[in-house]
Amino acid sequence: MCVRAHELLAGQTDHPLHVGITEAGTVFSGNIKSSVGLGIILYQGIGDTIRVSLTGNPVEEIKTAKLILRTLGLRQGGVEVVSCPTCGRTQIDLISLAGQVEEMVRDMPLDIKVAVMGCAVNGPGEAKEADIGIAGGIGEGLLIRRGEIIRKVPEEELLAALQEELENWEA
Asked: Mind listing the pLDDT tens digit for each residue in 33-85?
């Protein structure tokens, strides 16, 4: 209903439109509803300002809005973290590692893509589209820059090695 209302209004006025999904819900369900609804609206070129409304910390609303805009190519900047789902080849705590990477890069003033992959079999290939990435192995991991493996590091040093690379990043 909200998407259709924005479509109808956009067809009847040239005034700037403030778009949002009201009463979207909690951080989990509200993120999904807001992403889908705002994604449809913004993809059509409708909207001049946006509002994400979540039941939770307002900081989450800002993070969600920025990510929606960046995903649609309407905002630049920030570190994008991509990660693979876990599978039988995953030999590291990928879920925790991906979360730590996302937290680590949240306020870094870089405009790059970081990949966090669970295995050394598919990880390097899947990370080739990222500027930098890591891929787990058995007790060790790979550090990957622009699709090339640059070194192996012990698993317990993988996060620190990635952080060092990011802190010294030169485009």
From this structure: 999 999 999 999 999 999 999 999 999 999 999 999 999 999 888 899 999 88
- What average pLDDT does the structure give for the chain? 90
Phi and psi for 19 in degrees, rounded to 5?
Answer: -115, 150
Note whether 12 and 59 are same-domain residues. yes
**130 and 53 assigned to the same domain:** no
Q: Are residues 56 and 111 in the same domain?
A: no
Residue 167: pLDDT above 90? Answer: yes
Query: Does residue 171 register a pLDDT over 70?
Result: no
65 and 128 share a domain? no
Nearest to 113 by CA among 92, 133, 137: 133
To the nearest 5 percent, what fractions of the chain are helix, strand and coil?
40, 20, 35
Q: What is the DSSP string of 77-88?
A: -S-EEEEPPP-T
Q: Which of 54, 71, 88 is the last residue of a domain?
A: 71
Residue with structure tokens 């952080």? 163
Strand partners, 141: 136, 153
